[in-house]
Protein: NETI motif-containing protein
Organism: Sporosarcina siberiensis
Amino acid sequence: MSQKKTVWFEVEENETIEECLDRMQKAGYIPTGRKEEPLFTEVNGEKVPIRQLIKFKGQLVEK
């Protein structure tokens, strides 16, 4: 089964950015993009930010 050429990798809640990049490299991808978006929860009818979601776009390394 062939791998996808482009995959988004999300930095997990208890993972550092460096650990996510290492995970990408082990899977055969290099980072080619990054996006961040806030994650909110609702408290007393107001949206409160919990944390920042960070995702890296991985490009498959041709061997």
About this structure: Strands lie at 6-10, 29-43, 46-60. The first strand starts at residue 6 and ends at 10.
